[in-house]
Amino acid sequence: MKRLHRRLAALSIPWLVTLCLATGARAYDVAPVSDPESLGFSSSRLARIAAWQQRQVDAGAFSGAVTAIARNGRVAYLRAVGFRDQAKTSPLQGDAIFWIASMTKPVTSVAAMMLAEEGKLDLAAPVHRYLPELKDMMVAVEMKDPVTGKTDIAYEPQKHPMTVEDLMRHTAGLVYGVGGTKVEHLYNKSLYGNAGVWRRDRTLADFVSELAKLPLAHQPGEVWDYGLSVDILTRVIEVASGQPFDQFIEARLFNPLGMVDTGFYVPEAKLSRLVDPPANGWGGPPDSVLADVTKPTKLFSGGGGLASTAADYLRFCQMLLNGGELDGVRILSPATVRRMTTNALPPDVRFAGFAGGFVGPRAGSTWGLGLAVRSDAASSVVPGSVGSFSWMGASGTYFWIDPAEHLIAVQMIHALGGSGPFQRTLRDLIYGAFRVPDQGAPDAAASPLQIDADALAAYAGTYRFASSNARDKQESHEFGGVGVEIMMQGGSVKVVSPIQDAPAAKAGVVANDIITHLDGEAMQGKPLNQVLDKMRGPVNSAIRLRIVRKGRNEPFELAVVRASIRSPGVDLQVTAKNGKLQVEASGALPILDFEKGTPVAVVPMSSDEFFVDGGDHTRLAFLHGEVGKATGLVLNPGPWQITGRRIK
Questions:
Q1: Which of 493, 492, 497, 494 lies closest to 510 in space, CA to CA?
Q2: Which of 7, 73, 71, 114 is nearest to 339 (CA)?
Q3: CA 197 to CA 207: how far, in whole Å?
Q4: Looking at the predicted structure, is the pLDDT value of residue 10 above 60?
Q5: Contact of 516 with 524, CB cutoff 8 Å
Q6: What domains sit in the chain, N to C, each tagged with a CATH number?
Q7: What pTM, to 2 d.p., does this model score?
Q8: Any bridge partners for residue 624, and if so which?
Q9: What is the pLDDT of residues 380-436, one digit of tens each?
Q10: 183 CB burial (10 A radius; 0-12, 13-18, 19+)
């Protein structure tokens, strides 16, 4: 009955109220526990997160970061690093407000599922049931003349009408208009710029009316392509609920969950907590429009318009992890949350678009209803349990929820180019902070064994681990490639970092290079997975990279010969020195008790077993081959072990 009264009260909110960040609501106490060990974490290893983020701040990747980690319903870590402003005069606080960009999308998807549970929204229904103006949208097919090479557009009707579910799973055929195809250019010209409708003074109804004049980029249901689907879904929610979207989510989601700092603009009283944009701004539309959260808006973009805090978004995530409930408030049923967080894509779906590197077989990930879901641990680009679900924002914000570990992590940053370059490291550091249960110093600490120098020397070498933690089953892969980490930025291929000693680095490729062509083929607007496929090939085969570099007037080409590239791993360097075995991390990531630049002397327990007398008491067991030298290394033998192979 109380739930019914709350819903009736929500419907009585005055129609013309515009949502802002509430100034009088209750705050959520997110003070972290004093002993993260009680939640299964190592305090010293959690501290590595802030140290890593500080290095990013010092390097100019972002001005500051707020990270929140919760496990078993309690906050294990909440810390701010860096500054709120680009001038670096205002230290960042934990309650800082960030534009969360596409982390708005899961919020919108929850709102849609609330209506579906009430019978007000049919996910299987054609979108035109709610938005009749979209009924006759045609599908654009790009045709290339084999003689002239000219590309033109032909039009065909939809084989099946796009459904509400297509909007939620990005299979509606809609795109953002930021790529290089002719269809993308049509979207860009119509929607963005001074003459477009993607403006803060226009409404979602205006936007839908203009979109109806454009073609779809794909047949509905056939292709996963990240785009404007969730903004159309937002307008569907307005029609189905009979309320403007801002009022609906304030009354039905933010107020019940106590999300006191989340909304479509930041009121003057809270502007001192809003984090500055990146030094180079947000780039072009649609980001530049949605990111201006300092003024009220009529464009309630459910695809990317919200601002929020780490604490607020943590509450939203905890509701999902709890199966749709928080603090006695039921938002969704457990069955609905399960539906949202399991694969919703057809088995024969194709993947396209600039986000294709984060979703699809290559990424070990699929898509539910509003969320990316980890589906294949072995091929995933990030650690975590199968069934973990997540998403990110173009602003750099990122979150994931791991039901198997009862874990939530939220990182708030403002970084041009998004969170992609920082996701793996953050997740590695967090999973790497898990302690091995009930592991203390062994009795051997009192009377250590003595091992001769020759035996110790047989263990010296470099050992590679596919992951830095025992809760992940990533596998190390090997392929022919150029050895460069890339990201899509505004439809262009940007070099994040060339891998040290790999072919690209040896040929002269540097960070921030823009790769415009591969073997003469333009890469502008290509999906990330297609670019990666083009870069890979047989070992010793050559590929030409055309590059645009800041400070050089003209593009130039580099010839690169592909070599064997191993997927990122974690390395330990073992040395024998002064009658002791010393171990340190030698790659970019720490692992358990071992960090780069800090060799740790390990204590022998037997001829091939050692342990760290301090820290988290990591145990080491060397594996032997027929020739006497160690072939591998097992850390913490037992149910939580991590096994590495000797590579040098």
A1: 497
A2: 114
A3: 6
A4: no
A5: yes
A6: 45-105+261-431 (3.40.710.10), 444-474+568-646 (2.40.128.50), 478-566 (2.30.42.10)
A7: 0.86
A8: 630
A9: 767 788 899 999 999 999 999 999 999 999 999 999 777 877 888 899 999 999 998
A10: buried
